[in-house]
Specification:
- By secondary structure, this protein is an alpha/beta fold.
- It has a single domain, classed as Ribonuclease Z/Hydroxyacylglutathione hydrolase-like (Metallo-beta-lactamase, Chain A), CATH 3.60.15.
- The chain is built from seven helices and 16 strands.
- Helix 5 links the parallel strand 12 and strand 13.
- The radius of gyration is 18 Å and the shape is globular.
- The chain starts with a helix and ends with a strand.
- The N terminus is likely disordered.
């Protein structure tokens, strides 16, 4: 089945798929018309690097780590931010450009709060990048229910990385580096209990096992590119031996030469005893 996923993606790419195409397999439901999510379905759209748009069963749209307008892997149809449609909430795992770049513009466009590491949010509001009401504070171990008790819940958990925030001072024209808080990753629990762990950028750490046992994510969005994040072998060990989700979707690879890890390497390292890898191309999505 792992090989089937790889072959199916290759076939779609050769057929010239662009934009939001839903891949189908024996473990994913039938594709639904755009904007029509059946009760109990969660939509995950990958747009390159760590940029992911999640539509919850209740119709809430959560954008995570939006780097789109200058991302070489984002399909042209999504490089204009209005193409994303409505955004209700933005999550940013850390302050690096390839995760933060388009978050402020989307927050202003939709009047949607941008949650991220508390230190990063403080910097964003202090510098005037966003007003304080659009950059609320949030920290590791904290859980928010931004749409009320019946809506999706988001918990910030550990990531092993760094989080500097680069900023061009409009008064001086000079580039500056500011505090970006400690990096986080996010457990997103849907209205129906389905859980996705967006890992942002991270190395392997032992508490992945504890997080997996505590939250039991169904799907893990895991970086595999290497150099700045886990390589495919490390990522495979993390999901197979520590986290043990049902599905793993590789992200954060192939965007720069340093991110040389590939889904094929990740799939091979998983072997036959790990979770099933679900392979997406940028602009494609799965419905769960």
């Amino acid at each position: 089945m792992k090989l089937f996923s790889l072959l199916l993606t290759a076939a779609l790419a050769l057929a010239g798929c662009a934009g939001p195409t839903t891949m189908q397999s024996s473990t994913t439901p039938q594709a639904l018309p755009p904007g029509q999510l059946a009760a109990g379905k969660t939509e995950v759209l990958w747009l390159g690097q760590a940029s992911v748009r999640i539509t919850t069963p209740g119709g809430k749209v959560i954008m995570i780590d939006p780097w789109l307008t200058s991302n070489p892997k984002t399909p042209a149809s999504f490089k204009q931010l209005p193409a994303l449609g409505k955004i209700d909430l933005i999550l940013v795992t850390h302050g690096h450009f390839d995760h933060f770049a388009d978050a402020p513009a989307l927050a202003r466009m939709h009047r949607a709060p941008m949650y991220g590491p508390a230190g990063m949010s403080q910097t964003v509001s202090t510098l005037g990048i966003l007003p304080a009401e659009l950059a609320p504070h949030f920290g590791k171990g904290g859980t928010i229910a931004p749409f009320g008790p019946a809506g999706p819940r988001i918990t910030a958990v550990r990531a092993e990385h760094s989080s500097e925030l680069a900023y061009k001072n409009p008064a001086t024209g000079k580039e500056e580096v500011h505090v970006g808080g400690e990096p986080v990753s996010f457990i997103v629990e849907m209205e129906n209990g389905f859980k996705i762990w967006h890992m942002g950028d991270t190395a392997v750490f032992g508490d992945m096992r504890m997080i997996g046992e505590m939250y039991k994510p169904d799907v893990v969005l895991i970086p595999i590119g290497g150099h700045f994040v886990m390589n495919p072998a490390d990522a495979a060990m993390a999901v197979r031996d520590l986290i043990k989700p049902r599905f793993a979707i590789p992200i954060h690879f192939g965007t720069t030469p340093q991110l040389a890890g590939t889904p094929a390497q990740f799939d091979a390292a998983l072997g036959n005893t790990g979770p099933r890898m679900l392979l997406l191309e940028p602009g494609q999505k799965f419905d769960f």
